[in-house]
């Protein structure tokens, strides 16, 4: 496949990352996690004690930060100013602050431009790109667009499990935080989370990862 772009969008906990990585492996493509880029800027802002509600300060930070991303689906990686932050960007503090950072138009402009460069660099191969605005803004020319959803309860359970939580209270808290992040991501003025035109919409509530992957491949005629 020459220059194939697969866009995978959806809310947190919908199974996007797992599905996108598996699609990349199955199709022999590179993989880009755009959420990791917003998380990396957020991590830097928290580390530098920058007020995340100050768009000007956040924009300046994003302007200066140099992000490097690795696009191997088996081992995706992200570094800021040469320092790997793969574990740091997954903390609860970063997760709860990232929507504020991602709502700043200047931050989005900068990261979207970089995402397009990463995509262009994979030609003539191809890449699976996951995020919130891939099929709509970053790569509207993607040949395959997938929008993954799942019930809020199932998404919270998955997130909670990822975080290694066990108690019912933990799941309830994670659900409340997920709800808040969904609301912020869907209501922001700049490139909100939305189903892009022409997307295959899949509800993964009752589907396993292999089932979702098979369904995507089947629908786009790539199954073998
Ligand atoms: O996918 P993940 O949960 O890692 O994304 C973290 C956050 O980054 C999202 O909640 C959203 O605020 C932001 N994001 C975005 N646009 C993207 C990817 C992520 O605004 N393309």
Automatic annotation (TrEMBL):
Residues of the Cytidylate kinase domain: 6-219
Keyword Lyase among UniProt keywords: no
Catalytic activity: CMP + ATP = CDP + ADP; dCMP + ATP = dCDP + ADP
Single GO cellular component term: cytosol
UniProt keyword terms in alphabetical order: ATP-binding, Cytoplasm, Kinase, Nucleotide-binding, Transferase
Gene Ontology molecular function terms on file: ATP binding; CMP kinase activity; dCMP kinase activity
Any Gene Ontology biological process: nucleobase-containing small molecule interconversion
Coiled coil: none
EC number of this enzyme: 2.7.4.25
First-listed, main subcellular location of the protein, grouped into a coarse class: cytoplasm
List of residues binding ATP: 10-18
Enzyme class, spelled out: transferase
Family: Belongs to the cytidylate kinase family. Type 1 subfamily.
Protein's UniProt name: Cytidylate kinase
Origin organism lineage: Bacteria, Bacillati, Actinomycetota, Actinomycetes, Frankiales
């Amino acid at each position: 496949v020459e220059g194939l772009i697969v866009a995978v969008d959806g809310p947190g906990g919908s199974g996007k990352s797992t599905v996108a990585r598996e699609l990349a492996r199955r199709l022999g493509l590179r993989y880009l996690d755009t959420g990791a880029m917003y998380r990396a800027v957020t991590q830097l802002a928290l580390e530098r004690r920058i007020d995340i509600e100050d768009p000007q300060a956040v924009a300046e930070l994003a302007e200066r930060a140099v992000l490097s991303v690795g696009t191997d689906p088996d081992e995706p990686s992200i570094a800021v100013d040469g320092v790997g932050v793969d574990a740091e960007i997954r903390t609860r503090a970063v997760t709860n602050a990232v929507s504020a950072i991602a709502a700043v138009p200047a931050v989005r402009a900068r990261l979207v431009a970089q995402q397009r460069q990463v995509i262009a660099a994979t030609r003539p191969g191809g890449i699976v790109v996951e995020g919130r605005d891939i099929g709509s803004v970053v790569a509207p020319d993607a040949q395959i667009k997938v929008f993954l959803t799942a019930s809020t309860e199932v998404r919270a359970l998955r997130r909670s499990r990822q975080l290694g939580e066990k108690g019912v209270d933990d799941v309830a808290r994670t659900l409340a935080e997920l709800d808040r992040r969904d609301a912020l991501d869907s209501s922001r003025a700049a490139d909100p989370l939305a189903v892009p035109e022409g997307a295959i919409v899949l509800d993964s509530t009752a589907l396993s990862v292999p089932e979702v992957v098979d369904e995507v491949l089947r629908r786009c005629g790539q199954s073998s």
